[in-house]
Amino acid sequence: MSRYLLPASVLGTAVGGAVLLKDYVAGGTCPSKATIPGKTVIVTGANTGIGKQTALELARRGGHVILACRDMEKCEAAARDIRGETLNHRVSARHLDLASLKSVREFAAKVIEEEERVDILINNAAVMRCPHWTTEDGFEMQLGVNYLGHFLLTNLLLDKLKASAPGRVVNLSSLAHVAGHVDLEDLNWQRRKYDTKAAYCQSKLALVLFTKELSRRLRGTGVTVNALHPGVARTELGRHTGMHRSTFSSFTLGPIFWLLVKSPQLAAQPSTYLAVAEELEDVSGKYFDGFKEKAPAPEAEDEELAQRLWAESARLVGLDLSRGSPVRGQSLSRSPLEQV
Prior knowledge:
Blueprint: H1 5-26, E1 40-44, H2 49-60, E2 64-69, H3 72-86, E3 91-95, H4 101-114, E4 120-123, H5 141-163, E5 167-172, H6 196-217, E6 223-229, H7 247-251, H8 254-260, H9 264-267, H10 269-276, E7 287-289, E8 292-294, H11 303-317
Parallel strand pairs: 1-2, 1-4, 2-3, 4-5, 5-6, 6-7
Antiparallel strand pairs: 7-8
Helix pairs in contact: 2-3, 4-5, 5-6, 5-11, 6-11
EC number: 1.1.1.300
Family: Belongs to the short-chain dehydrogenases/reductases (SDR) family.
Protein name: NADP-retinol dehydrogenase
């Protein structure tokens, strides 16, 4: 019988070590224990994955959490789940389709009218490597949802955030931004052959540049903004990549994926950290990889590019450059691409 004890012991040690290594690689739980009673939080794309888990974490900490989602059936279900798990009844679902400028404006207008304050905005929603689709307004889908929709939403809520200061904006970017390039002459892939991977990387780089320029504009207001790579997580975001359907990926790379890929719960911890940590109150314009501040890609540090991207983004979504509000008299039912 004793001859089986050593192999079993070795196996147990190996399994235990693997689990500990996975936890280490995944980054662990949010190191801040800060609570946010009385604060209002908006999380986009919060019906599933990292967004839902982030909303759950912030509801646990006492926040009034608004789940902003396109699919209201899933959004309402997620809100019910979070209320039930946290016993926080101040968790609500609201419609927001980031692929529609009209929807973004309607959502922002309702928040401004009905909410006394907005303390934290987490721009979490994203699409990844989808086919060459376009938004309601004619934008390339990944640029429109991941970046332009959030650009407009944030600008429309800035006055509310400033009035509620101290406030925070958290932009979920990705490590993929390092492979991105912002082509201001062809942001919407009208001239180039469409590359879904490059389009995703461009959208995530745009978010880091947006973070940098927004931080500059917010100096002295009490509102901070930071960008974040949450890590690679097991969520629905990768549904268009085909990796989960690949036999090679499942069997050959499965152990590597198991080690490196986070659960949505763990992937939500960095977002939670940037939203609540007291030690980050004055930190702004930075890029975080998990819980650690890191230097982004060189192109993401280009201040002139950040300012030019801001101006072009404002033009595309119909935002007044001087006031940060919709341009009066501009028809927004037409695609901005038709106005070029």
